[in-house]
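S1.2 Input.
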Amino acid sequence: MAHERSFPREWLEALIIAAIFLRFTNVFVVQTFYIPSSSMEDTLLIGDHLFVNRYIYGPAPTALETKLLPARTIRRGDIVIFRSPQDPTVDVVKRCVGLPGDTIDYIDKELHINGKRVEDDGYTQHRDYRLYPDQPFADLQGRVRDQFGPYRVPPGHYFCTGDNRDQSLDSRFWGPLPAHLVKGRAQLVYWSYGGGTSDGRFSSWTEEAGRLGKTAGGFLTKTRWDRTFHLVR
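S1.3 Output.
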C-alpha cells in the first residue's frame, strides 16, 4: 500500500533531484565560464560569459549518444577550456594551434606549422609594434614570444595560444597542454558584460556583494547585447 507523502517532502526531493541533475550536467555536459583577461581578443572579450561543451572531448560514446551529443577529439583551431598546467585550480581559455606530432615555429611573430606559414586566419591579433629578434641581447620573454621553436608537440599534448598573440601567456611559455587537463570547448556567449569583471578569485563577501550590486545596476547599460548568443569560433 502506497503512503501519501507530504508536500514539503516532495518539494525537498524535487530540489535534491534537480541539484543532482544540474551538477551532473555541469560536470559532464555543459559548464559556464567567463573571460577575465584580454588574451583571446577580439574573439572573446573581457566580460564574455560562455557555455562550455564538456561532453565533446569525452570518452567514446554509444551510438545513441553520438546522435544526441556528438563527441570528437580536439581539432586544430578549437577554442578549449582547460585547467592551467601552472595552477590546476585556475581555468584557462586558449585556441589549439598544434596537435600531437605537429612541429610549431614562430618566426618574426608568424606561426608556422609543420614547416608551412599559417596564412591570415581571421582571428590572430598583433598589438605590440615591437619585434624581438632571436639574439642573446634581446629580452628573453620577447624572444620566446616572437621567435619560438621549432618545437614538436609530444603525444597526448596540444599546443595552445591566445588570439591576442602579443599579450598571451600560453604554450610558448608554459609548454604543451596535457590532454587530461582539457575540460571542454567554448561553444556560445550567452551574456557579455562590459563593466568591471572579477579576476575569478574570491576576496571577501563584502567585495563580492559590492561587485554583484554594480553588475546588477549596470546590467541594462553595460551589457553588450550584440554578443548575446554569439557562437564562438
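S1.4 Remarks. The mean pLDDT is 81.
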